Amino acid sequence: MENKWNVLVTGGAGYIGSHTVLELIKQDFPVVVIDNLGNAHKDPNASKPECLLRVEKLASKSVIFEECDITDINGIEKLFKKYKFQCVIHFAALKAVGESCQKPLEYYKTNVGGTLNLLQVMKDNNVKNLIYSSSATVYGIPEKLPLTEEMKTGNCTNPYGNTKFIVEEILKDLCASDKSWSVISLRYFNPVGAHPSGEIGEDPNGIPNNLMPFIAQVAVGKRDILYVYGDDYDTPDGTGVRDYIHIMDLAVGHVKAIIYQSSRDVKGFKPVNLGTGRGFSVLEMIKAFEKASDKKLNYKIVERRPGDVSSSYADASLAKKEFDWIATKNIDDMCADTWNWQRKNPNGFKSL
C-alpha cells in the first residue's frame, strides 16, 4: 500500500470537517483534528467533541484531537512541533453569510487572519500541501451558469464570500512566489444531508443560517416556522436556486483531492468546483423534505436577505476529469439522510 500522508484537519469537529475525517480514517490516513469548539459540542467530561467520538465508533478507529484556534499562532506552532504533517485540509472558518454582514471584523479576523497564521506556520515547517475549503460565493453574482473554475471571482455579495476570495488571492500569490506549494481550493456549493447511519450530521449552534437544518428543525418540531427569504428572484418559482450537494459526496471529494495531490507531483494553485451541476429552489427543497419526512412544513415568505444571489450551480466536470469524482446522491437521499439524523438527534449532539 502506498504511503499515506499525515493530515492536519483544521475545523475537523464541524459539519463538513467531521464527515471528511470519517472518510479519511476509513481510507487509513493518519489524521490530527483541531477545532476551537465554536460550532461543536463537547461534553465537559469527554476527551473529544461528541461528533468525533461518533466518527471513531463508525470507523472503529481513533482520532487525535487537539483544542486549538487558528487565530492563536502560538497554538498552531506548538501543534507543528508536536506532530509531523505532510498536508493540511483547512476547514476552520466562520461560515454564515447573513452573520458576516453583521460581524465583518470577526469574519476577517478568523477566516483571513487565522489562515495567514496557518500558512506562516506551514511555511516555517516546510509543509506545502494544502486543501482549502473555499466556496461558490467567490464567484459573486454569476455572469452565467453553470459556474466554471475559470470564471472571474471577486465582487462578492457579502463579507463571508469576500474572506474566501481574499484567501484564494493570498494562496495564488503564495504559489506564484514559491513553486513548491501545492494548493487545491475546493469551491463547494451547498452541503446538506448527513451520514446515512444518522450518527453524525449538521448541528448548528443557535439559529441555523442554512436552509436544510432550518427545514429539519421545523419538521422535528424544534422551530415553529420556516422563513423563505424572497420569492421575487428571477427563477422558475421566484425562490433562490442553489446547487445542493450531499455531505458524503463532499467528504469523498476531499479524500479524492488528497489522493490526487499525494500521488502526482501537482504544484501551484488549482481551484475545483464540487457540486452536482443542477440547482433546486427553496420551494423544491421544502417539497422534497415534506416527502422524505411525511410532514407538512409551515413556511412563510419574507423579504430577501442581504448578500443572497438568485441562482448558483456548478459545472463539476473538472473534478471528474482530475479526481475521478462525481456526486452520486440525489435530492431524495439528501432529504432522507437529513431527516434520519434530525429525528434520531432532535437536540443535535447534545444529549437531552
UniProtKB/TrEMBL annotation:
UniProt keyword GTP-binding, yes or no: no
Subunit (UniProt): Homodimer.
Residue intervals of the NAD(P)-binding domain: 8-338
Top EC class for this record: isomerase
InterPro entries: NAD(P)-bd_dom, NAD(P)-bd_dom_sf, UDP_G4E
Similarity-based family: Belongs to the NAD(P)-dependent epimerase/dehydratase family.
CDD domains for this protein: UDP_G4E_1_SDR_e
Pathway as given in its UniProt record: Carbohydrate metabolism; galactose metabolism
One of the GO BP terms on file: galactose catabolic process via UDP-galactose, Leloir pathway
Keyword Glycoprotein annotated: no
Functional note: Catalyzes two distinct but analogous reactions: the reversible epimerization of UDP-glucose to UDP-galactose and the reversible epimerization of UDP-N-acetylglucosamine to UDP-N-acetylgalactosamine. The reaction with UDP-Gal plays a critical role in the Leloir pathway of galactose catabolism in which galactose is converted to the glycolytic intermediate glucose 6-phosphate. It contributes to the catabolism of dietary galactose and enables the endogenous biosynthesis of both UDP-Gal and UDP-GalNAc when exogenous sources are limited.
Name of the protein in its database record: UDP-glucose 4-epimerase
Keywords: Carbohydrate metabolism, Galactose metabolism, Isomerase, NAD
A Pfam match: GDP_Man_Dehyd
Cofactor list: NAD(+)
Lineage of the species this protein comes from: Eukaryota, Metazoa, Ecdysozoa, Arthropoda, Hexapoda
Gene Ontology MF annotations: UDP-glucose 4-epimerase activity; UDP-N-acetylglucosamine 4-epimerase activity
GO cellular component, one term: cytosol
UniProt-listed Enzyme Commission number(s): 5.1.3.2
Catalytic activity, as annotated: UDP-alpha-D-glucose = UDP-alpha-D-galactose; UDP-N-acetyl-alpha-D-glucosamine = UDP-N-acetyl-alpha-D-galactosamine
